[in-house]
Amino acid sequence: MQYKRMTNRQYIHGDADGDGTPNIDDKKPFDKSKGGRVNPEVSLSNTFKYIEQKRRAAEKVAKPIAKKYGMKYRIKGTYSIINKSVRSNPNVSGDMIGLRAETIKRNTAMKKWNSFNKMNNVPKSGRDNKYKTLAGSKNPYRAFHSDFVVGGFGAEAQFRTKKFGELNDKMHIAHKQRKDTKKYLPKSKKLIKAGF
Questions:
Q1: Residue 15 domain-assigned?
Q2: Which domain holds residue 135?
Q3: pLDDT, the chain, mean
Q4: Which of 53, 86, 106, 136 is the most buried (most CB within 10 A)?
Q5: Residue 17 domain-assigned?
């Protein structure tokens, strides 16, 4: 393919070097010998596809309403949606800053979490004990979270045990790719029972 004639869509979703990674997610999109994803957990190509899918669905909703009332309509463009989504949040993201502490046992992690919340005036609405909120669910993830704002940025402090940290890290990529994490449930239950 001639790169000068490549459209924006071909660049984002295409695979110029044929290595199986969409250009936008490829560290070296025009060099098959030096491939690899920019971020193994997140695909911007999939994000663009998701937005485009939502735009098509929105058009199916907007068109009949506009027709019914004799109005014109428009569907916000993909770039505009991304721009507005980021800029409409003054903290950029709820977890722009990520903090983590690991302990051996769960009760120590909980004590550190409670102390952190008190020292940083984390509101109750920003505190999430995943041992309680996910109890009985098929989600194997466990930790203590604090969501707060610091220096104008959204921050998340996570307190977990080392053993749960290992399990959570194994699940992380599957979770980000919206894959099923239920296979980790038996191990999670054993860790909970053992005080991790």
A1: yes
A2: 97-193
A3: 92
A4: 106
A5: yes
DSSP string, 129-186: EHHHHTTTSS-----EEEEEEETTEEEEEEEEEHHHHHHHHHHHHHHHTT---GGGHH
Reference 143, options 109, 189, 186; nearest CA is: 109
Q: Crossing angle of helices 78-87/44-68, nearest 10°? A: 100
The strand order across the sheet containing 153-161 reads 97-103, 153-161, 144-150, 127-129
Q: Is residue 168 part of a domain?
A: yes
Our measurement of the distance from residue 48's CA atom to the centroid of its chain's CA atoms, rounded to an integer in Å, reads 14
Tokens of 43: 């695909």
d(CA 137, CA 59): 35
- Average pLDDT rounded to a whole number, residues 62-77: 96
pLDDT above 80 (res 175) = no
pLDDT digits (tens, 9 = 90+) for 122-153: 999 999 999 999 999 989 999 999 999 999 99
